[in-house]
Description:
Elements: E1 16-21, H1 22-28, E2 37-41, H2 42-64
The structure holds zinc ion.
The site of zinc ion has 8 residues, from strand 2 and helix 2.
Amino acid sequence: MKENQECDVQGCKNPAVKTVPGEKAREIFSLKNETRRAHLCKEHYKEFKKRTKKEKEIERLGWVR
Ligand SMILES: [Zn+2]
C-alpha cells in the first residue's frame, strides 16, 4: 500500500491501513470516490468488520431457522 494513502470515507483524514471491496464499503459509509477498492483507516475498518460480521450473523441465524 502506498504511503500517505488517506481513508476513503467522507470527511475522514486518517491514514488508510486496509483495503476492502468498494461496493461493500459503500453500503456502510459514504465514500469520497467511486472506487472499486476502498481504503479504510483503522477506525473505519474496525467498524466495517463489525458491520459485516453482524450481517453474517443474521444470515446464519436465518439459516438455522
Ligand atoms: Zn476513516
